[in-house]
């Protein structure tokens, strides 16, 4: 939970419900409908706009699925049932407990709740090899607006399609997901290579990376983190960290890097071989000797505020435009922001954009995530940092996807537009943000929503609206 949603003026729920069994959720839905109370569903709390626990639609209650975290792994069938309140780290741990050569493609941050992560698509370090989390979900259990418990067969393929990427708190309360696990090699390789603007031509290196990612082997995922740091001589420098997961050993990795991205100068001593589950610890930026038990730690304390935005890039950003980014990065305090470029391609190019609601597939070079953070809890600081990230986002418009300009729903951004608090909205109003998140899949999501929740009971500021809620 971001600190900016923990203030005296933040709307508070009438109650926080922590159900112990399915009937408690059914009762909460029934009671809320009867008394005109809205529901927010929380699985982990990583929510950029706080929509899983804060509502402008009042009165409201929060259904916190913290007690729904059971995980059952079946190695012979390579499947697992995971309840929606479990965190990604718990999922990874329980799979590794049974097999070190099975895994599941999902996010880096191990404290993210699976309910929200899967509801928005679920990108991660293995998506170039295996696609998204939702590409490997084969069944689910959902409690609908009528209080019925539905599985894939009883809910039908349209609703099953919609919940795998169409956004949380929209179609019902998903209480469990059935996952198809993927095979991983016994040994994977990882590296973090850091370069700064004071050492070499950083613009040329980042520019070249954009051309290299489309040629990477599907076993190789690459991400770069861009931020500013204080150098030893007191100057402020831009630091770029090239971080990668390779599903194989170093002897296979090095020739691939030397052929596709020699400019990085990757050397054997830069790389570390480990098991896949150990790579989860590595990318969580924890010491390599950290016990895997940390993945079961359910505590999450965030004492900073932040704002996030996202983009998709289809063609390399010109060097002169990168220079413009660096110029804007110097305008904010050191370590108060981060840009992330995450490579696409591979398996992502092979899956149809209509196979799930998540449309950002073939033709996407990489995704950008913009993050800015601040500590001071006052309106002046809030406006300073939010206006800065909005300005950077505006600057990037010519260099990212267009018609529509894409965005990732798991990096929720209310700047893109919101529904009316009373539940009514116009198709034109909703389709602005809907097209950014879902592309041409938005219309089908509207049809599914209209069929399963015509009165728009499950809703938030950016939930898919049914046709019955449209106004002229």
TrEMBL record:
It comes from Turnera subulata. Keywords: FAD, Flavoprotein, Glycoprotein, Signal. It holds the Pfam family BBE. This is FAD-binding PCMH-type domain-containing protein. It comes from the Eukaryota. One of its GO terms (molecular function) is FAD binding. Belongs to the oxygen-dependent FAD-linked oxidoreductase family. SUPFAM superfamilies: FAD-binding/transporter-associated domain-like. Its cofactor is FAD. The keyword Membrane does not apply. Gene3D superfamilies: 3.30.465.10, 3.40.462.20, Uridine Diphospho-n-acetylenolpyruvylglucosamine Reductase, domain 2. Residues 9-184 form the FAD-binding PCMH-type domain.
